[in-house]
Structure formats: C-alpha cells, structure tokens
Amino acid sequence: MIGIREATPPDLAEVARLIRALATYERLADSVTWTEPELAEALFGPGTVPRVLIAELDGRVAGIAVWFRSFSTFLGRPGIWLEDLFVEPAHRGRGVGRALLEHLFQLDPNGRVEWAVLDWNVDAIEFYRRSGAAPVTGWTTWRRNGNSGPGTT
Predict the structure, then answer these.
(1) CA distance 132 to 78
(2) What DSSP string runs through 32-69?
(3) I want to staple 52 with a disulfide (CB 3.0 to 4.6 A). Which of 7, 30, 56, 63 is the partner?
(4) Given this model, what pLDDT does residue 149 score?
(5) Which of 16, 29, 96 is nearest to 58 (CA)?
(6) Strand 51-57 and strand 60-72: pairing?
(7) What's the mean per-residue pLDDT of the chain?
(8) 128 tagged catalytic
C-alpha cells in the first residue's frame, strides 16, 4: 500500500538521505553543499518556500517529491514547480512515482505542474511521458548562482 503525506521535521534524516541519493543518481553528489541543520531550516523553518511529500510503501519511506508554488502570468493563476522527484531504485515500478505525481496533480487540478529532466535520463523521460506530460519546446533553462556567476548545478 502506498501512502503520501507531507514531510515533518522528524523526517529530516530520510529526506536528506533521499536528496543525497538523487544527487548521486544524477551524477551531482558534489553539488550537495548543505548541512542537515541548514536543510532543516530551509524545509521546515519559518517562511519556508519548499514543501516535501513523502511516499511510503508498506510503511517504509520509498520516495520524495520536493515542490513549491509557482505562478503563470499568462494563465493568471498559480501552479506547481516540481523541484525533485525521487523513488529509491528498490521501489521503482511499483506505483510510488505515479502516486507522488498524482498527488501533486490533485493539489491544483486546473493548474500547471512543471519540472525539468536531465536529457540523458531516458527512464525518467519515459515515465513522465506515460504520466501524460510532454516536454516544453522552444525554452532553455538559464541560471545564475549568486555573485559567483553561471553555474551548472
């Protein structure tokens, strides 16, 4: 049985573990620079922006979705930006990722849920296609990391 719930401060160690596992999977482990107290403040402190969904399979944490509210000026309404979706490899193919996505879709059924996918991650791309999503053509993601200028992560 798959359960989806909001993460709470006691979930910090599991959330941190899954974020690190995602970074390793995406070949970006060196990009994780936070300490657990910093992550706790960012996720659960006052005025936090991100939200975290925990997926449990048979009572064990199996995946997470980190998301926050966005806004479309063209639609004139809020949407959702899915920052990270990660299901532990041992739990893939059992509906955990689908349950996380469906939960997000139901938070704003008339809104828009958007995310980015690494171009080499064929498994994720196919998973998202099966969920009814499609890539947005004609747009390129741009980034600047603080005063250090352009960054890759």
Answers:
(1) 20
(2) ----HHHHHHHHHSTT---EEEEEEETTEEEEEEEEEE
(3) 7
(4) 57
(5) 96
(6) antiparallel
(7) 93
(8) yes
**What are the tokens at 26?**
């995406």
pTM (predicted TM-score):
0.91
The label of the residue with tokens 């309404």 reads 77
116-130 mean pLDDT = 94
Active-site residue identified among 55, 85, 128, 147 = 128
Phi first, then psi: what are they for 29, rounded to 5°? -55, -35
Beta strands in the chain (DSSP E): 2-6, 51-57, 60-72, 77-87, 113-114
Neighbours of 137 (CB within 10 A): 5
Whether 70 shows a pLDDT value over 80: the answer reads yes
Average pLDDT over residues 116-136: 94
In this predicted structure, the answer to whether residue 152 has a pLDDT above a threshold of 80 is: no
